[in-house]
Write a structure and sequence with these properties.
Blueprint lengths: L4 H6 L5 H11 L3 H14 L4 H13 L3 H14 L4 H13 L4 H15 L2 H6 L3 H21 L3 H14 L4 H13 L3 H14 L4 H13 L3 H14 L4 H13 L3 H14 L4 H13 L3 H14 L4 H13 L3 H14 L4 H12 L3 H15 L3 H13 L3 H14 L3 H14 L2 H11 L5 H11 L6 H34 L8 H4 L2 H20 L2 H14 L4 H13 L3 H13 L5 H14 L2 H14 L4 H13 L3 H14 L4 H13 L3 H13 L1
Amino acid sequence: MLSNYSGAAAQNILPYEVSAGILSFEEGQYYQAVQQLENAVSKYPMRIEPHVYLASAYLAIEDHTAAINAAEKGLVNFPGNIRLKLVIAEGFYRSGDDRAINEYLTILDMLENNQDLETEHGITQNQVRTTIGNVYQGMANEAYQDGRSQEALNLYYKAREYSPDNISIHNNLAYILFENGRLEESLEVLMQANERFPGAEQLSVLRGQIYNELNDSEKLLDVYSELYRDYPENLDYAIIYGQLLMSNNQAQKANLLFETLISENPGEKKLYDLLIRMNEQRYDYGGKRNVLKMQRRAFPDDRLVAEELAETHILIEEFEEARAIYDSLAVHDQSEKYHVMIARSWVFEEDFDAALQKYRFVIAEFGESQDLLIDTAQLHRILDQSSDAVDLLIKADSLGPKEELKVQIADLLVSQGVHSQARPYLNELFQSRYDSYATFYMNKISDKDLSRQELLETYRVILRDMITLYGDLFEENTDKVSQRVNNIGPVLPEIFQKDPVLEILENSLNDVFTSMSGHFNFIENIQIIEYALLTHPESAILHYQKGLMAFNDSKPMIALGSFKKAVEYGANDYNLYFQMGEIYHELGETKNAILSFEQTRTLNPQFAKAYSQLIDVSQKANQLDILCDRWLMEYKTDKTNDVFNEHLIEALHKADRFEEATQILRDDDSR
């Protein structure tokens, strides 16, 4: 606004001293202009030009105080001059003096009351209003930075009033409201701003943040649909839009969007990764495979992409395709890695002979590493080739002794009856975490006679410590499973996911309970279990075994109480529920018996006894028609369980519902 004055000044014939000062000012020689204009003001105090240019020159060299003083001196001779008032206002503004706003408001009032001033001085009301808005904005920014949020908001509202075309004022006002949790007010500000600045990027992004906070997924989707439309070159907007489509159950549209983005940006890895993760979330591994194929074409030398594609082929049982990729990778990698993956693909396919042949090739080609020997031994165990499994585990143990390997070796040797060879490995497990396991089997294969009291004490310690060991191993195995679920590490065949030592210990615990039944009476067995329960009061295994012993000793109430405890602590075995059902049936508790037998067949749909008992209980309680109706509803959704179908026909016959039974027989014949 100040720069428009030179034209008006040039229309007048000015003294040399004044003209020289103005020329220096316009050429940017402000310090020289100050000296010249100070002299001109002294010589010509009744001319307005040297006063205006002197004050302006002081502003230019950022001597705000001198500028204000010079302007105020000028106002003595030229009261109400807008140009001088502008210098004072600007001086206050630049020096951070709040008096600036009042000066600008006074100038605006003068212009509003005298339209000729705009033409005379080349200053418009809009210019002043914009400046006032900027001043309020500066004051608002300062208040916000000082933590005075409400004051900042009040100042931003004033700034918007005077400078409505300043988009940053609208944005900042909305942002502070948003930051203070005043979401609806913030949204109102943004909607008003959108009318003035339709489609403005920064306003739309902030609006999206608010809709996200309000959990308004539809409007959030609309915002990013607009951003994607208006800024198609911004991949981040496109990606967020695709993710929102997915979360709004528009998976097909999201897939098409990402496929389009990939075709347009084949070198953007994050697009492939996002589409892959989206397919994973939907468990669409066929879709994931297709994306990985595109990614492999775009990045043919990226081995990680090839490996993930091969693993995905395995997940959807495309084993030949997986092996073809591993074969290709093996050509360029002279290590055992991809050959092992080929061997595992045969394990996934459950062709254990082919897998074993490949493992033997890998061992012959790359040497007897411990991991290879252990995996190969596991295959031999599956194929009931125990002697070969033992030989490989012994070799593996020689490469790096491990307690877990010794447990597996001892287990195989004991099961083969080769006790003399098993003893050294059991001896090495004493004083280790597997001491209770070693103690049990050493006692089992030993000829040493123990007194009944010694035997009782031995079993008390063995059972307590084996439950401790089992709990520790179970927790460790659960952690490993969690890691696999979270895709940490390579995909493994199920037989390699199971911890062989945990399986051995499960079988060993069964051996312990069987051995207890052979050595001790009911009271003594309960004493052994109660001793272990002192240490493991929430052991589902112990409560179940206590209930089983009571059940077998015809003590139904003790058994039922223990079974309930076992369920409370996590037991979920179909045998347990079947035995509970039998007890409830014996006690005449029909409802509980039916619930227990139904849970039994849920856990094991092929367990025929559960169906028979349900029919028997329902018939005795005159509820056979209810059972038939319930089972017929189930039959309509799944007709593939032959055991269920057979018992449904039996139930219908016993309920004299022969036509329905005949129809099921026809269905079976047609299948």
